[in-house]
Amino acid sequence: NAGVTQTPKFQVLKTGQSMTLQCAQDMNHEYMSWYRQDPGMGLRLIHYSVGAGITDQGEVPNGYNVSRSTTEDFPLRLLSAAPSQTSVYFCASSPTVGTAYGYTFGSGTRLTVV
Amino acid sequence: QQQVKQSPQSLIVQKGGISIINCAYENTAFDYFPWYQQFPGKGPALLIAIRPDVSEKKEGRFTISFNKSAKQFSLHIMDSQPGDSATYFCAASGQAGTALIFGKGTTLSVSS
């Protein structure tokens, strides 16, 4: 049982480049979300999904796109990377949209934009 | 607007001591208050959680105290150990379908 798998673990991008951060879960969880973690800022919500085909914006959505075509996968796309997007990105999932269950987090993707 | 305020930002405790981390929230619709523990290079992991219908929840050395009227909750780590050295996040969420809102985190160092 892999849980939440994020790839890649590390990535360096040049300003203006695009890339997709992958997130997959094998627990049949309905709810998936993306957070970014920056020093002193905690975990800030970027986008989330309550089920396949349904996504919504979080606190810091600008510069990021998401889609949810399957229950298992929730990729995060950076269309034109900027240095301000240098961060550690975490994907998380939960069994249902309710809050009675804790989130399961992936191990993160450390992204550097130069 | 920061909906969950966490303090202190960092904390140093001697082995065997009590670590206390505090959080305050603003939204009275919040009804779920978890604490997450994160080790370097790892994702956060659920440590303990509480709902506002109880004032305290204990799991081993970890206790959440909840004060609904003051809109505050805290994590107490009894008999703190060097292995407890990590970053701790409080969080809160409301009705079904809403995401967790996290505090900014507390870095705990337990000295031996």
Task: Write the SSE topology.
The complex is a heterodimer of chains A (114) and B (112).
Chain A: E1 4-7, E2 10-13, E3 19-25, E4 31-38, E5 42-51, E6 54-57, E7 64-66, E8 76-78, E9 87-94, E10 104-105, E11 109-113
Parallel strand pairs in A: 2-11
Antiparallel strand pairs in A: 1-3, 3-8, 4-5, 4-9, 5-6, 7-8, 9-10, 9-11
Chain B: E1 4-7, E2 10-14, E3 19-25, E4 33-38, E5 45-50, E6 56-59, E7 62-67, E8 72-77, E9 86-92, E10 101-102, E11 106-111
Parallel strand pairs in B: 2-11
Antiparallel strand pairs in B: 1-3, 3-8, 4-5, 4-9, 6-7, 7-8, 9-10, 9-11
The total beta strand count of chain A reads 11
| Class of secondary structure makeup of chain B | mainly beta
- Structural class, judged by helices and strands of chain A? mainly beta
How many beta strands in the DSSP annotation of chain B?
A: 11
- Give me the number of helical elements of chain A: 0
Low-pLDDT runs of 5+ residues of chain B are none
- Overall 3D geometry of chain B? globular
What value does the average pLDDT of chain A take? Answer: 93
The major β-sheet of chain B equals: 6 strands, mixed
Share of β-strand residues of chain A: over 45%
- Indicate the proportion of strand residues of chain B: over 45%
Largest interface: A-B, 25 and 27 residues
DSSP summary: helix tally of chain B? 0
Question: What characterizes the major β-sheet of chain A?
Answer: 7 strands, mixed
Termini of chain B, distance in Å?
A: 38 Å
SSE pattern of chain B, N- to C-terminal: EEEEEEEEEEE
N- to C-terminal separation of chain A?
36 Å
